[in-house]
Amino acid sequence: MKPRNLINISSVTTYPLQNRINKVSVRDFATPPEVAIDLSQFLSSLPNILKGQEFLALVDDIVAAHRNKKPILVMMGGHVIKCGLSPFLIDLAKRGVVTGFAFNGASSIHDFEIALIGETSEDVAAYLEDGRFGMWEETGRLMNTATQHAADTGIGMGEALGRQLVARDAPYNAYSLLAAGIHYDVPITVHVAIGTDIIHQHPSANGAAIGAASFTDFRLLTTLVTDLEGGGVVLNLGSAVILPEVFLKALTIARNLGHTVSQFTAANFDMNQQYRPVENVVKRPTEMGGKGYTFTGHHELMIPLLVQAVLSRL
Q: Which of 224, 272, 190 is nearest to 72 (CA)?
C-alpha cells in the first residue's frame, strides 16, 4: 500500500481555559446534608411493587455489602458530574461506602476542570465553528502531563490525575472525585477510547502513554471486579457504551482466571435504558445467580435519592 499522510497536531493552537464560557459551575452543585436524612418513614411508605420493591432491595444490598466489607463499585459517565452530583459521591467515598470508581474519559475531564476552575462543560456548537472546541491549554497540557507520568511510572491514569490535582492544590479540589480518591485512598480508574476526548486534540497528547495508563487502570478494575463475589455491588451511572463494555471484559478475565464472580448485585441508572448497560452490566453478568436492576430517571434526582436512602439505612 502507498504511504498515508498523518495529520500533524503539534501546531494546533490552544486557548486559556479561564477565557472559556461554561455551562456548569460548582455554584450550582449539590450540597449533601451534614447528617444523613432519616428517610425511614419514606422508604417504608414505598409500594412493595415493581420499581418500588427493586429500589428497596438495591438499597438493602448496598447496605449489606458495606457492612460485610464487600466492594461497592461505581462506574459513571460525565453527565453525572455535569449534573453537580460529585459531592454526594465524594461523601460516600469519605464514609467508606464506595470502594472504587470507574470513569470514562469525559468523567475525568469534567472532574479535572471542576477542580481547576470550578466550572466545566463548554458550548460545543459555538466553539466548533472556528476550531476552538476542546482546545483549552490547561486541560490538555496538565492532563496529558499526568498521563505521561502514569505511563512512565506504571500507575493508572486515575491515580496520576488525582495526584496532579492534589500536588497543585487545585482551588476546587473539594468538588473533585479524582482528588478525593487520593485523599481517601479510594481507587479511581479511567477508561478511554483514543480520539473520543478533547485532550487527545492537544499537541501534548501521546497515544502510547494514554493507552498504557488506561490499560493499567483496566487491570486494576479487573482486580476490583474479582472481589465482587459474595455480595458485592456494581452501579453504572450514565455510561451507555464504554464502561459497560469494559466491565464485561474485566468480568470475563476474572472468571477466566478462576475467580467465581457470580453472586453480586448490578444496577443501571440512566435517563434512558440503553442496550449495552442493560445487557453487559445488569443481565448477562448476573445470570449465574446474581441480581440485576434498572432504574430510569434524571441523575440529579435519582442519585441523591439513592445516596440518602443508603445513608439513612446505615
A: 224
Helix axes of 50-67 and 299-313: crossing angle, nearest 10 degrees: 50
Cα(75)–Cα(292) distance, rounded to whole angstroms? 15
pTM score: 0.95
* Whole-angstrom distance, CA of residue 93 vs CA of residue 170: 19
Measured in whole angstroms, the distance separating CA 168 from the mean position of its chain's CA atoms is 22
Evaluate whether 72 touches 98 at the Cβ level (below 8 Å): yes
What is d(CA 107, CA 78) in angstroms, rounded to the nearest whole number?
4
Domain count, the chain: 1
Residue 94 is part of which domain span?
19-26+51-313
Residue range 95-147, pLDDT digits in tens: 999 999 999 999 999 999 999 999 999 999 999 999 999 999 999 999 999 99
User: Domain holding 75: CATH number?
Assistant: 3.40.910.10
* Residue 37, in any domain of the structure: no
- 185: helix, strand or coil: coil
SS3 232: strand
Residues 6 or more apart in contact with residue 215 via CB below 8 angstroms: none
In the block, which residue shows the cell 459555538? Answer: 126
CA distance 180 to 157: 15
**Residues 104 and 239: beta-carbon distance below 8 Å:** yes
Q: Tell me the sheet residues that pair with 233.
A: 72, 265
